[in-house]
Amino acid sequence: MIQALQVFAARAAGGVQAESQSSFRNFLIVAPGSVGVATAPDEKVMELARHLNQEGYAYVARPNQKQMEDDPSGVRYLPLSHQLPAFGVMTAVIVIGDPLWAALAAATYPEADIFLM
């Protein structure tokens, strides 16, 4: 799946902060075009989230999500409105099809790798 990703922005140049070097890994998938549970893009997003959840903690932010909830595999789904969820340390952010959200992710999480898919 990683081969399909286009790197939008990488970590800021210079030393990576000690706290982001720990084994604690957060992955955020931003799916602004998500339209429903039964659509093909949502299935791919869910598959990617479950895969990433094996490597750390995966979160999916999507506009059709009414409230925070976890699925049986441990992926946490979050509502997406006009801003990104706030986290202390984010390892990577994957944005589905929206360069503006990718730019916002790069500004919000300067320590994270940002991918536009």
Main features:
2 helices, 117 residues, 7-stranded mixed sheet, alpha/beta
How would you characterize the overall build of this protein?
With 117 residues, the protein is of the alpha/beta class. The chain has helices at 40-53, 99-108, and strands at residues 6-9, 26-30, 57-62, 69-70, 76-79, 92-95, 113-116. Strands 1-7-6-2-3-5-4 form a seven-stranded mixed sheet, with helices on both faces. It is globular and about 30 Å long. The chain starts with 5 loop residues before the first strand and ends with a strand.
Summarize the structure.
By secondary structure, the protein is α/β, with parallel strands linked by helices. It contains 2 helices and 7 strands, in the order ββαββββαβ.
Topology:
Layout: E1 6-9, E2 26-30, H1 40-53, E3 57-62, E4 69-70, E5 76-79, E6 92-95, H2 99-108, E7 113-116
Parallel strand pairs: 2-3, 2-6, 3-5, 6-7
Antiparallel strand pairs: 1-7, 4-5
Let me know the average pLDDT: 80
Q: Percent helix among the residues?
A: 10-25%
How much of the sequence is in beta strands? 15-25%
SS element count, helices: 2
Alpha-beta classification: alpha/beta
The termini sit apart by 10 Å
Q: Give the beta-strand count.
A: 7
Q: Provide the low-confidence segments as ranges.
A: 1-6, 12-20, 35-39
Query: What is the string of helix and strand elements?
Result: EEHEEEEHE
Largest sheet entry: 7 strands, mixed
